[in-house]
Design a protein that fits this description.
It contains 13 helices and seven strands.
Length: about 350
Amino acid sequence: MKTQDLAPGIIAGERRALARAITLIESRRSDHRVRAVALLDDLAQARAQAGDQTRGQALRIGLSGTPGVGKSTFIETFGMALCDSGLRVAVLAVDPSSVRSGGSILGDKTRMDRLARHPNAFIRPSPSQSELGGVARRTREAITLCEAAGFDVVLVETVGVGQSETMVADMTDLFILLLAPAGGDELQGVKRGIMEIADMILINKADGDLAAVAMRTCADYAGALRLLRRRSYDPKGYPLAMTVSAVTGDGLETAWEKMQALADWRRTQGHWDARRRDQARHWFETEVRQGLLARLAGDPDARTAMARLGDAVAAGERPPAAAAEEVLSLLFGRATKPDESLDARAPRT
């Protein structure tokens, strides 16, 4: 399938076109990147020409949790319920990467075999490629492609790296934290970090012998959430903690109702659109920063200077800040003098 045929295929909801497009945007080849940017631009223009403001408004749900909490099982059971109700669901599962080949290690798609066969579902595992924050570098663009293909819900399953895994919240509408009962982390709720940005905390595995323990764990987290400062974009009662079971399906219907209620409230209050605009600006600035780093790495003079100054820094001959300023001067033509930066911050008398 040619690149120019991808945009019409994606808009028509063709899985093959969507899969090829995601492969294209994840490629690190410079020629592929040019084609990927052109594809995203074509999709944006097609939406603008159609005047359809509702297309591309899928509910983006980020899902995180510690390894072994049952994220894949939860997504399969939850996704099956959504698909059976008539919704189209896309799952972007970010896997840990091999440090040698860069490919996925776990392959989440193989652990969601029932959901993978559902006609309303699309599952795409992607390697994190050593990116921080629990998501791949091009996850946000993959979300855009899934929305253009007409999916109603996009689930983003992160690697599961711990408290610092907050990047997914900058590209989704709802951020769900999945935890296991009796995990020993109940007091983490009073700390800043991943608990602070979660919209809902779901205590999974609330079945069998763990049901009572899950209820106690849920109560602990609910109490911890009440200690956090209320956010302006949350209605009363959020963020909240509740129990679910990915095995039996208990609590999943209620959890979905709570997610919809929160999303609807944010839409009516104007927080939805404002958050989307802030996220778009954030990722624009991120692309600029990454582009500058790529330009720096691709410039022969800059690479030579990096090697020379890196040796000087390692030998203790130059301070890192001064050496970095000299490298930046190669890109912008003029280095900021140390006395200028200090004078700019000094109070005037």
